[in-house]
User: Fold these one by one.
Assistant:
Number 1:
Amino acid sequence: MKWVIRLFFRTLRRIIGPFMLLGEKLTTPKGIQRAPEEQQRVDADTKGMTLYQYKTCPFCIKVRRQTRRLSLNIETRDTQHDAYSQKELLKYGGQLQVPCLKIENRGSKTIWLYESDKIVHYLHQQFSPEHGEAVRH
């Protein structure tokens, strides 16, 4: 019975996935414009961040939209198609759940932040112009 359910959802993702990606592309927000020096600071702060995600996961799309909205250069890893990233996420993050934002702080331990709402909130708090300059880690 499990294989029937898996087959159903795999088929559903293959049918709906391209439409979700098209919707993401058509509705991608414009990134905020920062002064070049400030964008360099933000880029330095996001250098230690990696987003583990699936391309067609709606929660991952939500996080990617936020990264574009805030003009953040965060590395992404597709754990659905990259076995190494999937193993890394499970081994160090503790769960095979996406989205997950890996935050490597300078001089302290790595944080694995799960749940799209928490990730979006974190990115907004750290990098939104309404909150002033990006908070340094």
Number 2:
Amino acid sequence: MSEESRVAETRRSVARPLSPHLQVYRFTLLMATSILHRITGGALYLGMILLVWWLVALASGPRAYATFTSVAASPLGILVLVGLSFALMQHLMGGVRHLIWDTGASMDVASAKRLAAGGLLASAAATVALWATVGFVAYAGAGG
């Protein structure tokens, strides 16, 4: 038996996973925020379809715009818009976090965890503040 075939046979007989998986990695806040940053980027990309629809409806006249606003004002439409608002805020906070890391700051694990948690809280707070403002403006505009 040649040296190469003996080495190949030895490698084949070892029973171990091909790559590290769930048994090796622990799900952490930093992993979650990294994954969430990627997901929100994709959601924002798809959300551009709504922006284009709004702009086309706005340019197409009152009837098309009324159709858009009726869909956007439905419970599902509001849920989608709130979700996109959160995605925007979360993606923005993730970008700020990476910008801070680019300066070399907050690179230790404890600081990175605080930064990630702060980004989540800030994005939730910014989303609530945005929709509270939208609700206030709509209420004031309706003569309330």
Number 3:
Amino acid sequence: MGEVFIVEVDLKKYVRDYAFLLGLAGLIVIIDQLTKELVRTHLALTAEWAPWPWMLPYFRIVHWSNTGAAFGMFQGFGLVFTILAIAVVIAILYYFPRVSRQDWPVRIAMCLMLAGASGNLIDRLTQNGQVTDFISVGSFAVFNIADSSITLGVAILVLGVWTIERREKKQDASTFSDHRPAENPAQPRRDGEMGE
């Protein structure tokens, strides 16, 4: 009876964890794929568009194709990044339920990284190994929603890990001070010790 209850509680925890992970990541993937499809449908490759002419030096939508990593790095390594994206997706799906709910920045970061890896992986699998990029800001490399999601996820992960480490150091310090023996000024002197 007790074992059945434990299995039921664990199953509910996994369902809640995966519902959160897949819900948030899925929403970002849908936005990523819809925006990419709009660009592919309405703009020829390398064509650009801005809703107002004054935006063109600073921001524009450009239909760009990328066989490398985020922000156009490492062109021509599409197969490597496909395998890497699959590994990242599997790792996040495996580790996510093992991350404490108190460590919510890490959990949010994992959702964002799963969304970004999945969004670009879908492109690689359906667009002949190429990823559609379309956001162009100033002279910065053209990117997409999935790239932004990965970048934001990594930034939040670094911040989350740093926060966890600080919290653990504070806990260790308070535990150490709680267990340190108190000094007793009235302790008798041993033979050979000098008095004041």
